[in-house]
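> @MW can you paste both from yesterday?
MW: sure, first one:
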Amino acid sequence: MLWLLEDVFAHDTLADAARRAGHVVRAWDDAWWTEGLPSLLGPLLFRGSLENADRLARRAVYSPGAYCHTEAFACSAWYGAVPDVLIQRNARFTTAQSLVHHPPVDLGERVFVRPDSPLKPFAGRVVEVRGLTLAALDHGFYYDDEELPVVVAPVRSLGREWRYVVVGGRVVAGSAYDPSTRAALPDTPGGEPWQLAASIASRLPDPDPAYVLDLAEADGELGLLELNPFSGADLYACDRDVVVREVAAVAREVLTRGV
């Protein structure tokens, strides 16, 4: 298998794991967008920035190319499948403009807002409901569409976080993450977070053959924070050898089935 890797994740060792498994590794070059994408034989999988992952998935030049089925990762596409375990319970879907013009005062003086899209045209944030402006949501800086779909939810206090790699509907690797120190530690299958992630993964329709699932503590309880495309996700302390083995296996399986 050929891994096409963009150097965007600090201290990442996926390339080393791929080589240990006997795979080929090649560095991504942004110049290819203007010079033309090279002819590369599959199976080939990209991992790097979300923007490039999205573009490669849409171009469908390579197989599988990139695991970044963007529309399937929109919050509005999967929140309804697991409403009981969401961190953002009582979430509402609207647009940036509608949120500014019709603030949800019944949710409190402050609300959490994030883009519906996994490409994250602005970072999720807590904002004051009264006097909210489009500029406060980075309109005009990172995006220009006033009708950008957004998710609005009551504010919750987050603690520790976990990231799990899901392949073929199974959790195959996990990492704990402390956002205050940016420290990542391997997680174990016997723990409560891993078990919850496995349960959630079994209930969700797979947005891609491989993706990442994030949990967090919110006001003292565990819940599902978000899903992210594998091809644009940091793996933190997830076991790279396991990730390479499992992702390569499912990529070959999908190609063999012709899916």
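MW: second:
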Amino acid sequence: MLLVFFCAILATAIYLCVHVAASPRLPWPAKAALCLLILAASQMHAIQRGLFGSLSGPDMPAWLLKMQAALFCALILLGLMTLAWDAVRLVRWLARRGLSPSKAMHGGPASPGRRRFLQGSAASAAFWTGAPAASLALGASGTISGTAQPRVRETLLAVPGLDPALEGLCIVHLADLHIGPLTSKAWVRQICRDASACRPDLVCITGDLSDGACSFQAAGGGTRREAALELAALQARLGVFACTGNHEYYSGYADWMAVYREAGIRLLHGEAMALDAGRAPLVLAGLDDPAAARILAIPPKPLAEVLAKTPDLPKQAFAVVMDHRPGRAFDNAMAGASLQLSGHTHGGQCLGMARIVARANRGLVAGWYRAQGMPLYVTAGAGLWPGFPVRLGVPAEIAVIRLARAAGGALEADGKAL
């Protein structure tokens, strides 16, 4: 999948360079400079890996990475705009060509053709002025939005037959923090303040907590280890728990696990446990990401095995499952999960990308779903991978889920039946 993405970006850069080279308005030095800029923007990830030590979380200044990201996004947008522009021009050319024989028979004057040429030249000039400017503006805006502080999004889940003792249970769901070159200690600290202000009973972090090595720099000074330790400020009555995401395995796995323990976060590695929620039974499980098998040769345990091999779990308990990727929701529901919390998709990140993201995640991108009768919440995430830290129309979030008893016996979320 990544190989296809990188090839598509390189093809887009070459396509734009061909347009630049064919432009009659630019001198050759300007053409060469623009082509070099386009190719450099397209090789953002190769530069990060080759010069700054990591693809998942390079050790580089935040300002430089933001500039890279804005140019990379602008490149993609300009490529799409140019493709659409060329398609329109092709359709118009074919239409004119189809009408030309009849016009030739009537021997019409040459002036309409001249007018079309002048109009086409003006439209072309307007496009090649406006499209790059719009692409750069959207790239910069998307990068600013992609690195902004996440908002709190509260949602109510009404569950048929919910134990009355669990009525009002508050779960703060965080995912995809991606603590790295674009996040600062202050950014993490504010997330903890906003989350704790909701007075959660339980905090669940569903993977991709950080990127790069612990010793790499964070935004605003200090190391990523220091930024991650700010998570110690998270407070919840039943505790703060997490499962691994795919990015946990890309760099410094053992070091990061030690950092999370130091911050007071309990990682559940294919584990389940009973929580003391008062008079009502509550089970929490965490599943490791499948990347563990590929990178560390640790095969992830399915939920059915986890529950079967965990002694003394209360029967008929409400079971919350943390699983970074949403795609296993149907299997987890069959295994007895009552609610699944997932991330990984970043909500699609940009308007129009949801369909692409859905293809890789069994149609599950953002918000509430129902899998085999089980409610599933896929959060848009609090942060983003530094390799594409752009959001357009899909803001970051701290998801706050409150449980309620469904009066009508139907599973509902935010007043809508699931």
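> thanks! Confidence is low (pLDDT under 50) at residues 100-110.
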